[in-house]
Hints:
Layout lengths: L1 H15 L14 H12 L2 H6 L2 E9 L5 E9 L2 E8 L2 E7 L5 E4 L9 E2 L2 H10 L4 H5 L6 E10 L2 E9 L5 E6 L6 E10 L2 E15 L2 E11 L6 E10 L14
Antiparallel strand pairs: 1-2, 1-13, 2-3, 3-4, 4-5, 5-6, 7-8, 8-9, 9-10, 10-11, 11-12, 12-13
Amino acid sequence: MRIASRALAALLLAGTAYLPAQAQPAAEPTAADLVAKNLAARGGSAALAALKSVSLDGKLVFPGGFELTYNEVRSGGAVRVDAALQGLALVQAYDGKGGGWRINPFEGRKDAEPMSDDEARSFADAAPIAGVLLSASSDGSSISYLGREDFDGTNCYKLKVAQKDGDEFVYLIDPDSMLEVKITETRKLRGAVQVSESELGDYEAVGGVMFPMSIESGPQGSSQRQRVIIAKASANVAAPVSLFAQPGK
């Protein structure tokens, strides 16, 4: 009986060698992993380094279908946006050196006026060609992985960028394309915390770097959204320093 028991035990042990190994759950990526994959999806570091300026032309559509022509130029950490209707052009710009300014003829103002420091900081975040996420590692911001979140039926990766000034950006990254599909910004403007959301889509390559051709944005929780639709994008356009400098200053 003892011999039979030993033989049975030996057979059971031998049999386990032929059992299929159970699949182990895939390890969750780190923030660094996701940033590296996003960089590759955007076009890679060489393409970003070669893209010195970019111009985006299209239209800005407000709730109710009110439309303005739209032009955005970014270069060397500076950005300028012109939105025009019937000869009137709203201009908003950041000069890349800490100064933001605007011209708003729709409010009866024809001369350039400086932005507040908070507003200038907001435009400064929009200036880098690489964007806030890919610039975070070089400007002292921290990046953390927050797990997954559903967006329109897709289980997206979630990353948070916390800047040194306290502003935060939460990105949802599509797991297939590894491109940003939603950004939630939390920042302080004029002493009050404001949260806005942007949904990004229709990516196209500009000088080898992927940019969204459709951006819908507005305050968090609001159904009132504005949409930028880009019809033409150009790489390495002429972008002199004077384009971003405040007139008359």
